[in-house]
Amino acid sequence: MTEAVLLVGGKGTRLRPLTLNTPKPMVPAAGVPFIAHQLARARAAGVRHVVLATSYLAEVFEPYFGDGAAHGLRLTYVTEKEPLGTGGAIRSAADALTTGPAGPVLVFNGDILTGLDIRGLLHRHERAQADVTLHLTRVADPRAFGLVPTDADGRVLAFTEKPGRPEEIVTDQINAGAYVFRRDVIDTIPTGRPVSVERETFPGLLASGALLHGVVDASYWLDLGRPASFVQASADLVRGVVRSPAVPGEPGEHLLLPGAHAEPGARLTGGTVVGAGAYVAAGAEVDGSVVLDGARIEAGARIRASMIGQGARVGPRTALDGVVIGDHAEVGADNELCDGARIWCGTVIPDAAIRFSAA
């Protein structure tokens, strides 16, 4: 039985106010909590047991997913009392695994959307007889990521975490946030203190002579750390740019969840999701956006690449472009917000109060 650890303990501070009441992996993307997509893809690749390494708002995961049976999985929940970093979280979660010492254990970061061939990654790990195999991807600007150069055979040569100087940028290959560990390698991670797998575990293994293998994959990959990326990920899932068995509908320009209502004459495009109980009035235009449960979009509103929180209201003729509206906030009529503006949960903006907002 293939087992996996899913790291879902982060606070998601860059996604606030979306994550004030909801941990980042549970924020809906394409109609379901984001990690539902990761779990569904893992299940499709043959994984049967997943350990969720939780911390921030840990209490919300189990009521939604339960024991995992409804998703074709067995789920175990491990909660950190204090944040332990990526390495510490993996080590803590490993106590719930049953895989033997030489067996493979998949590890995923809970904020990455990817079209990675998971079975292929496992196969490459076994063929290389590696201690750890890393999913790598190439990006045009690698400065915000961990660089992982490899030789012609895929052997990892070094790690540079978020290079600060031009001479440190020796490759465009970055750590893409999915790994296969030999089970006994996880046991070498120290316990009882925070450990960064990127800054401590991997460089330490490399220095000790362990075989770390890199698999460069050119499939879809997106880091969901920023609101704009999260909204894009949802839209790409709805449109079928990247496929997930968890999307509750066929690929298309929009997705209406049960109980959602869009009046005739409302225009929904670009992979827009309208959540349960949400309402979009006639004449409103919503493009490539996420409208969460119970939200209300009034007549003539124009919304693009934005996220509208649960129970929020966008007034008539208001224009939003690249904006996050927190849960139960209200933006009155004839406002204009753009360029990364974020409206906190419960905030009320009067009619015609804002005409623009800089990032």
Describe this structure as you would to a colleague:
Residues 255-333 form the Mannose-1-phosphate guanyltransferase C-terminal domain. This is GDP-mannose pyrophosphorylase. Residues 4-237 form the Nucleotidyl transferase domain. With 359 residues, this protein is α/β, with parallel strands linked by helices. Helices cover 18% and strands 29% of the residues. The protein has helices at 34-44, 61-65, 85-94, 118-128, 183-186, 197-207, 227-239, and strands at 2-7, 28-29, 32-33, 47-54, 74-79, 104-109, 112-114, 132-138, 146-147, 160-161, 173-182, 212-216, 221-223, 254-256, 261-262, 267-269, 272-274, 279-280, 285-287, 290-291, 296-297, 302-304, 307-308, 313-314, 319-321, 324-325, 330-331, 336-338, 342-343, 348-349.
Topology:
Blueprint: E1 2-7, E2 28-29, E3 32-33, H1 34-44, E4 47-54, H2 61-65, E5 74-79, H3 85-94, E6 104-109, E7 112-114, H4 118-128, E8 132-138, E9 146-147, E10 160-161, E11 173-182, H5 183-186, H6 197-207, E12 212-216, E13 221-223, H7 227-239, E14 254-256, E15 261-262, E16 267-269, E17 272-274, E18 279-280, E19 285-287, E20 290-291, E21 296-297, E22 302-304, E23 307-308, E24 313-314, E25 319-321, E26 324-325, E27 330-331, E28 336-338, E29 342-343, E30 348-349
Parallel strand pairs: 1-4, 1-6, 4-5, 8-12, 14-17, 15-18, 16-19, 17-20, 18-21, 19-22, 20-23, 21-24, 22-25, 23-26, 24-27, 25-28, 26-29, 27-30
Antiparallel strand pairs: 2-3, 6-11, 7-13, 8-11, 9-10
Helix pairs in contact: 3-6
Quick rundown:
The chain is α/β, with parallel strands linked by helices. Helix content is 18%, strand content 29%.
